[in-house]
Amino acid sequence: MSAGVRTVAVIGAGKIGELMLSGLLRSGWPVDRLLATARRPARAEELTARYGVRVVDNLAAVEQAEVLAVAVKPQDAAALLDEIGPKVPADKLVISLCAGLPSSFFSRRLPEGTPVVRVMTNTPALVDQAMTAISAGAYATGAHLALAEDMFKPLGATIRVPESQQDAVTALSGSGPAYFYLLVEAMTDAGILLGLPRQVAHDLIVQTAIGAAVMLRESGEHPVKLREAVTSPAGTTISAIRELENHGVRAALLAAVEAARDRAREIAAQAG
Questions:
Q1: Rounded CA gap, 198 and 160, in Å?
Q2: Alpha helices in 14-129 (DSSP H)
Q3: Cα–Cα distance, 107 to 178 (Å, whole number)
Q4: How far apart are CA 42 and CA 233, in angstroms?
Q5: Nearest CA to 69 among 114, 44, 35, 43?
Q6: Rounded Cα gap, residues 54 and 8, in angstroms
Q7: 183 phi and psi, to 5 degrees?
């Protein structure tokens, strides 16, 4: 399946849907091969003005597109599928960007045999540094997964995972940018406490975060080894790490990610 000949409709072009639209356009996807739907007329006008994409209603998107990327809020997915489900031909690929919803949620509401690929990406897609996890539903083939990868690779890195791991992916990388932003916020405040101007503290920690991330990716070293390389005997770093351990930062992170995973499961249960 060649990605370049597919017409893609982003159904529910909110924040995540817009990320997908803008990323596809940056990668060279033809604008005449993209459609979007939006609930509010003002939002439709905004998308057309910003990207040049044609905004249509949901049923027109189903009729005209070969790939339907569903990016509505999870709580709105059932009503959407009640509307479009009976109109979706079983040979169209449905890509779900709805956090927490399993592919079976869609399969129950779509014609028998409709391929569904479940995708979890994250907001660094805005700068082409997303982490996107892709899973096959019951009827999705390797060709469907390859097409989904073609669509999301321009946004950053992609990985295939069993769908049983998607709630963990949602908790770790889907929500993950927020954890790092919170850490940067706290460290910036620490710099201010120590007497640095806010902008100086911000610049120091942002570049430090970027450098640490690149070292993690490029060096291939375990994070423990990289941390040990900074941690001199009786030095400043080990004093700081002792305080982080005393305050249970590691345990708090474990509990936070687990809570996010549990909430993803609750969302699926509530959606039915």
A1: 40
A2: 15-26, 41-51, 58-64, 77-84, 103-107
A3: 31
A4: 60
A5: 35
A6: 11
A7: -65, -45
DSSP state of 86: G
Helix (H) or strand (E) holding 130: strand 130-136
- Cα–Cα distance, 190 to 201 (Å, whole number): 8
DSSP 53: P
Tokens of 212: 């640490």
Structure tokens at 40: 């509010």
DSSP-assigned beta bridge partners for residue 231:
none
Count of alpha carbons within 13 Å of 116, Cβ hemisphere only? 24
Are the beta carbons of 94 and 88 closer than 8 angstroms?
A: yes
- Give the pLDDT means over successive 10-residue stretches in the chain (272 positions): 70 90 89 93 93 94 95 93 93 94 94 96 93 96 94 94 96 97 97 98 98 96 96 96 97 97 91 76
Q: Report the predicted TM-score, pTM, of the whole model to 2 decimal places.
A: 0.90
Alpha carbon distance 113, 105 (integer Å): 13
Listing DSSP states for 180-222 in one string gives: HHHHHHHHHHHHHHTT--HHHHHHHHHHHHHHHHHHHHHH---
Give the pLDDT confidence score for residue 44 in this predicted structure: 92
User: Which amino acid is it at 31?
Assistant: V
